[in-house]
Amino acid sequence: MAQFYRPQRGRSKPAEQPIKRNASVSGLDHQGRGIVRESKGVRFIAGALTDELIDFQPQGKWQGKLIQVKQPAPARVTPDCPYYEQCGGCDLQHLALSRQRQHKQQVVSELFAKFAGHDIDCWQAPLTGADWRYRRRLRLACHWDSKRRNFKLGLRQANSKAIVEISDCLISDTALTRLLQPLRKFLPQLDLIAQLGHVELMTTNSCCLLLRLKNPVSAKDHRQLLEFSQNYGVDVWLHCGETAPQPLLAGQELPRYASWQTEVSFQPGDFLQAHGELSPLMVEQALAWLAPGPGDHVLELYAGSGNFSLPIARSGARVTAIEGVPSMVERLTANASRANLSIAAQHADLEQPWQHYDWGTIEFNKVFLDPARAGAAHAISEVAQRQPERVVYVSCAADTLARDARHLFAAGYRLKRAQIVDMFPQTHHIECLTWFERET
């Protein structure tokens, strides 16, 4: 169900704690925050870097607010974004890009040591692409104040529901940011403004605008949206209530994005990798490690609409693709049919025992998985029990990757390759490719 933003009334704030001066930053945590060690524990300070001397104000039990950098680290750089101090999107622009990548690799290594009990000694150089203007999907928060007739559209402030009204976003494609000011002016003219939950922009082979609403739009709004669509060359999609997103124009084709040696159709609102340039390169690298071919039976888990499924099937391997969202299984099936590929796409809850499903008893020799941030806690134990010769795991959450890797290590697998994919430059978010091989 959509959640609609309502600003909270003022609350009394706790008394501010005295500023701690000349504190030494000993490292960064997995969220890119500076770590200050005190006699009573640690403090996590956003914006601080390793080996810096800072003043900070304690907040809560474990947090702190950076007041001043007394002695900056050599890796500190000046953020290019004018909204950096307020916006909650990027959080590592103050750290040189090469050090961002080193930090992300170190985070994965530390979490493997902590949760999986293994060191990583097989790192491959990071897979990189554009550092700026790489985002092809931008979700915007909005709020309509009916009394003041005031509309806010932008990104959430860090650790707050407040909205920062941006006029640009330096990590987003200009095909998206060009629409910020027109939308800020246009949307308040519509009857739907009072029920607008959020706005999402995406660009692949076409530019799409997705509006999250409680109810269908009026005929008047429909006409105005159609005019906006034509004037700005953007396809409008409406996500009303609990129904699936629908195009403003009946019969509108689904947008498509490039995977490796193929294209994938998707519905606005589906998962879409943020970095348009790196996504097909990551698929290519993952397939090089998986090495599928005729004679292989690949089980793919969390398959989505086919970003990896279609390239795997092109190799001639037999592919059984499992996905938890029924509508995405339908799109995967349609994408495979359009590409003349044979893929057995199935809907299943991978957190349930596999013996409930027909495909759960089929033999396979290779596994590929790309779960959400929650990882694959149950699925990975099912995989480990079946002892496939090779597992390639793509992760966007290093902590759950390390937790799941522990099951593979316990089942006799070794980590053969690991690689950071810098899908989210200027932020602490980590994408990681891993290749596990069964010991013989």
Automatic annotation (TrEMBL):
Pfam families: tRNA_U5-meth_tr. This is RsmD family RNA methyltransferase. The keyword Zinc does not apply. The keyword Ion transport does not apply. The active site is at 396 (nucleophile), 396. One of its GO terms (molecular function) is 4 iron, 4 sulfur cluster binding. One of its GO terms (biological process) is rRNA base methylation. Keywords: 4Fe-4S, Iron, Iron-sulfur, Metal-binding, Methyltransferase, S-adenosyl-L-methionine, Transferase. It comes from Pseudidiomarina terrestris.
